[in-house]
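Give me the fold.
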Amino acid sequence: MSTMTVPAYGHPDYVGFATGKAVELTPPDQKAVGAAFQKYAAEFSKYPDVQTGFNLTYPVPEDLLLPFGQFVEKYSLGALVPAIFAICQGYTPLLEISTLYVFKYLNTDLLNSLSKGFLTTERSNTGELYEKAANELASDAMLNVSVVAMDRSSSSGLAIILVQTTSGRKLILAKKVVFTIPLKLDNLHNFDLSTNEKLLFGQYYNSAYYAGVLRDTCLPTNTSIHAVGTDKPYAIPDLPGIYTLSPNSATGLVQVCYGSPHALSEDQVQADIIAAMQRIQKARGISATTTPEFVAFANHTPFNMMVSNDAIKNGSYEKLYALQGQRNTFYNGVSFHAQDSPVLWRFTEQLLPRILAELW
């Protein structure tokens, strides 16, 4: 393992992606940003249980339920907002999201990583972890499957799940099941959901996040491009739209990150990105002979699973956590914690002893 810092691409360009034109913007003073981060950390530290899950006290503290924009105003954190917009990509509309969810992502682990560097693999490829796990599991790992039918309350005491795989249907008999997928009802077709599960999972809503890599952009390879909204509070642009364009000078490829407060089709997102790239080309007088083309694209939707403030006040997460172990089922993932790998691994370590205790 090694540490890495966020790569620099020279002086960034600020662009209004709706027009493609460059925008003059003076970022907040770094001392002011540092001071605001300290104030943010001081407020966050008042809620240590938020770091380990949705372990809330009732009544839920008012600050956790404030729209993040109001929390920013209350504690004079304006200098921090552009940085948080860049860090918390996919959390949109940022200033309207309950502060609880910003705390869940911009947590102690991430604050430490931002200041000291991120832990990564030797080749900076975290995908290797999952590739090696798949190799270890071999034929026991079934990928790209869909649920055909399920009975987690069978008279046998086992969970029975029929799945469709690329090589046909297979029957799984398990003592315990662990769900890690985002718990949206439209993501749970053919699951044998109880009335209570349907009620709790039906409260979730989410934002959307997409990432891609393009070629033939004809853009400079030494300058990153950041979205801004000069007529908006803290210069935070309206989304759906691009967050950043980050070039790789060695390959000439450009990484793009895109967010939306609601799900969009992949065709819509890709078309919007290509159109934005062409507006930038036109605004810069770049005569392109080719159309930018995706060489990779990833859809991370549903992203940042949330429930309403009323649901939080009424103990939605307390009721959700009470599902652990019922009907031979345990839960993990973003619905039970945060869109953040380190804290999810910690959550997993806390959950495993309970699962193992019920297996034997």
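The first helix runs from residue 30 to 44.
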